[in-house]
Fold each of these.
Amino acid sequence: MSNISYREVNDDVVRTMTETGRSYYIALSLCLVGIVITFGLPWVYQIYTGQGVTGLHSPAYWGVYLTNFVFWIGISHSGTLLSAILFITQTPWRRSIYRSAEAMTFFSVVTAATMVFVHMGRPWNWYWTFPYPNQRELWTNFKSPLMFDVFAIGTYATASFIFLYFGSIPDLAAVRDRVAGWRKSLYGALALGWRGTDREWDLLQKAYTFFAVFIIPLAVSVHSIVSWDFASSKIPGLNKTIFAPYFVIGAIYSGSAGIVTLMILLRKAIKFEKYITHVHFDKLGILLVVMSLLWTYVNITEVFTGWYTGTSYELESLSYRMFTTPFAYLFWLMIACNTFFPLLFVFRKVRVSIVAALLISIGINIGMWIERYLIISTSLPRKFLPNMWRDYFPSWVEISLTVGTFLFFTLLFLLFVKLWPSFSIYEIKEDIGIPMEKKGH
Amino acid sequence: MNHSVLGFFPYADRLLGAAARLKQAGYRNITIFSPIPIVHEVDHVLGEKKNPIKFFTFFGSLTGFFFGTTLAFGTAALYILPRFGKPVWSVTPTVVIAYETTILLGVFATLVSFLFFARLPYYKKRVYDIKIGVDRFGLLVRAEEEKLRYVEEVLKEAGAEEVKRIYED
């Protein structure tokens, strides 16, 4: 990267925000129309008609909406977390990718939150989840993992946004200096009057370190708490102590794969091949192999934990998931996507092959979505006694809203690329090196 | 009356050399502008700065911990709901709530203290040049008018591309 000048970095990043091609508007319009059709209208239909339009029923009151919720919270896990870990360990290849990864975190949390509202049935009562003084003197139940969720995800969304915005202040100032018109006013306000003084940089670095230190335990707690939504119940297939590490590892795994997919698409779309190089995919590929092995290990442990209980209902839950169609197809597809294909990253040729990295990373997230779907849809419908058994399959409304979440995430990201410096100008410059006359630059 | 001299450098080592000379000559009001963080290099020349943020972060986190604990315990006391002989005040779930609020208020305190000490947001006119956001390093020295000639000489000798005097209103 040493052959790139500082000015070029400013030009390239500002270009992504100011020059907009026709294909961008087409993608944006398709997303908007798609969201109305796949998300907006079915949701209105569901609210108007009632939750009966979904496939949810007794005893399976949790379904695809919560699968999507866990999936998107999982996707959010690598952005900010990876950025924080790589910042603390001073890993140089972080610099080109972390801004978009952090944005990915924030947008996935927002996307996950939409699923909570959809699942609620009466979303206008959302504020009932918050502890607020009311006439009945009734308070929320702080012993419920669902309340833990409200606090954990609320904190995570807030901290992730602050982490993203805070790290962007110097870049927003750099953009402010280059643009005119409404953009000048907008970025002038967002840059807060940043000038790049030694005092400002010093405080920024110190505060950023604190944020990074906060983010790591926070991210771990968020997915642990999400896992307790399930694990603290007594349902066969859910009541397992391994769930917290299982979910956290799964989340980092799917989040890392999400970063790979996103970076490949982004570098192609905005022509940033010189900033996101094969080195990045090489390192991320190694990370995915490690996460794949960890996930496989925890997955095997999870299955064995169920098997070793020796109870008929746990064994039924396992056999329903692993050997009964149609879930068995999904289970073994998940194993193929998450355990076997990522092993190809052992070979450097595969790691630096963009097509292979794209396919495997998408495969990992298909597998991770299936994992969450199987956890929910093979446990609740197979409660203790056979007279309680009733299969769960999502209705068209649930499938449509699921597609809608992907379009919603894409829309947020498209807006981000146009309105925010999606690459950190100052950190890419750090990668290039400090210009010193003695060494040159 | 105090005025300033601002010099622009293409190389950081040239700027740091000039800053070191001026500091040695007794100039105290020195500000360095840069497009990237050169915190360690600046600390080496101007001395390490104190970190006031850490106290705010610590007390913010502590406040968050007490807030979370009080919220969970206090609301349990306000509306006692006995369930199966389980304790009204339960430590384990309270720790989870307190853990999250500790982080939340710690993050807020860090952000607010950063803004306070960095004096941001600030939207009035201040000494700045858009070159700094691209690829130039700036050295701003504020001193009495009679001492500024020496500053200008040092900056030019050190290799500043441009040196300008700034008169404040």
Amino acid sequence: MTSSEKFTSMLEAIGLFVAIVGLIVLVASRFGGRRGDRVVAGVFLLPTVVLVLVGLVYPALRTIYYSFYDAAGSHYAGLDNYKTIFTSSDQITVLRNTVLWVVITPFVATAIGLLYAILVDKAKVEALAKAFIFLPMAISFVGASIIWKFIYEYRPDQPGVKQIGLLNQVLVWLGGSPHQWLINSPWNSLFLVVVMIWIQAGFAMTVLSAAIKAIPEDIVEAARLDGVKAWGMFRFVTVPSIRPALIVVLTTIGIGTLKVFDIVRTMTGGQFDTSVVANEFYAQSFRSNNQGLGAALAVLLFLLVVPIVLYNVRQLRRSETR
Amino acid sequence: MTALASRHRAFALTASLLTLTLAVTACGSSSKKTRSTGPECAAYTQYGDLSGKTVKVFTGIVTPEDALLKKTWVPFEHCTGATIKGTFDKSFETQVLVQAKAGNPPDIAIVPQPGLLQQLVATGKAVPASAETTAMVDKNFSTDWKAYGSVNGTFYAPPQNASMKSLVWYSPKEFKDKGYTVPTTLDELITLSDKIAATGKKPWCAGIGSGEATGWPITDWMEDMMLRLWGPDEYDKWVQHKIAFNSPEPTAALDEVGKFLKNSKYVNGGLGNVKSIATTAFQDGGLPILKGNCSFHRQASFYAANWPAGTTVSPDGDVFAFYLPGKTAADKPVLGGGEFMLGFRDAPEVHAFQTFVASGEWATLAAQGGGGRAVSANKAADVSKCTCSEIDKLAFQVLQDPKAIFRFDGSDAMPAAVGSNSFWKQTTSWITGQSTKTTVDKIEASWPKG
């Protein structure tokens, strides 16, 4: 395609867009009155519904369909791809890592966020302290991964060679010898999880801090009059009061963790047994040319995320109606 | 209203941009060429008068190399009157297949992989090479190169440029100071490595880190050893999966790599223990040579670009490379890559242009142009006219050597599930401790069935 052809097709696309929007507005303006409102709403909804169908529902169905086919997508393979996920040792490692991620990240990140929110609550330097832990949220996953790659960086322990990784330099200062953090499974997955926690703790802190501030002062006062100590206050007043927020934070981080891809791909590329479902799905579909297995992994990921999303939505609704 | 106004502005902007582009394109396209018949065109009379004819070439070669390539076409255009219209697009590899399947291929595609060449021929749209092109290739290239341009015994595509991977980087200064000589057999290389290791220095350094592609340098190592231990025929069988990945020959080849890369007396000079190979970026793998912490680093000629600024790369400079020797001094297996000119239109100008690229004139023009387009395996190329680096000259000489047996990078030709997944992944695990047996077994298990 020459550049003029590219521009022509771009203009065509813009023209088409304008024409369709114009048509919708035109059709919608033809209807009036009470019954007309419904038609207008329907007409305006139509493009969204069409786009959701084309961009979401159709590809999802296609993916499910392909997950029952072989690598090239040409022969029916039954449940073979799913069998591979749950039987081949490489894929089982992938599942194990995903479980590790999902079990550890949401709870640790939320716990750190909650603790921090309580500690800095009403402190003098609250805003500044919050900014520090919130800052990683502003960094993209890839950026954060590169930062942490440098922290874990290894150089051998020999004369003339200097450590350039923070963690190993600290080890050397303490008299230890440098360590290759990202090689030994399953510990290396934990070192990757740290990155996710580093990013997500700020999010947890922000939401939970807001929830803590929303606890009615009279409840706190009443508890205090009843002689409740710090732990009791936390256990019986703070946590029950912010329960909906806690659940939203936990599930949101959980969903994000299930889909984690950038950190693994940037830091290890899924090597050294650190791959997770999302990364493996990419590797199989686009590097291995195994569309069937890739699709099956995508479906699995979808199945794992759905219950959490449903729970999340239900909790959100419940807290809204309250 | 503001939204409407900004839309107007956006439209105006787009429109003016479009006008500008059209104007630029109009300026770019030159008027019809006519043929020159000056004395400089003596070698081109064989192609005849092609005035007014156009050949559309599609390639994945992009800036800055596209300019070098275009320059090599100028004398042909000048002397035959033909116009060569190049399309230089990074997404060539996916695009060309789509175009060929849709029945809308270019006149010539510059194909960098034998696997893609086979896929393109399988579409049924490719045109076999003419008798003239075949004669030119027979004259200037080894049978290996012709075989890679052929599918099922029919010759289609003449080779263009070439690159070479079987190189070991070293420090000429160290060799001079210590009185070492460049080894000419694999055994000599091992003897020299032992000698250096006995002084307490780790002779080899390596790095295979490359993000998700971590491990690929080991595939090159193993291919080189496969060629050296078992020869080109077994190598081909291995690549085509006519022998299993875990059969004795490949297993022995990987063990041979292990003699170097998993030998704690040999590695990893200046970078740590054996496992550090896995975490060292491949770009950094050879750098300890400069500091004297390591003596050898096996990597392709492109590694010349990885040395820090100010490093002299020459036979008496800071670093240089020698050909990774064969089993005997007479064995010259070469691992590398190359490009092929696959035609899709059965017309005299297309055939003529293919013949021209296979000619000594073209190869010399490319060598004169220098840069990344200099090296080819064309025996008629005049290397003395090459404006290329010392390392390119070395590659040129090795590739032109009549004894050289050329083989393409095998992992590129294997199915993606192996060549760009399990082969990388399992050999990386092999470096971090997995046994050779488990490694080849797992790669064999990942080979797509059917």
